[in-house]
Amino acid sequence: MEEDALGDALGQLFVKEYFKPEAKARYDTLVKNVMSSFSEHIRNVDWMSAPTKVVAQNKLHAIMPKVGYPNKWKDYSNLQIDRSSLAANVMRANQWQYNYQLHKLGKPVDRTEWGMTPQTYNAYYNPSNNEIVLPAAAFAIPTLLDADADDALVYGYAGASTIGHELTHGFDDQGSQYDAHGNLHEWWSKADRQRFNKRVAGIVRQFNSYTLLDSMHINGKATAGENIADLGGIVIGLDAFKKTKQYQEGKKIGGLTPIQRYFLGYALGWQMQVRDESLASQLLTDVHSPAQYRVNGPMADVPAFYDAFGVKPGQKMYRPDSARVKIW
Ligand SMILES: [Zn+2]
Question: Which domains, ranges and CATH numbers included, belong to the chain?
Answer without folding.
Answer: 21-68+117-323 (3.40.390.10)
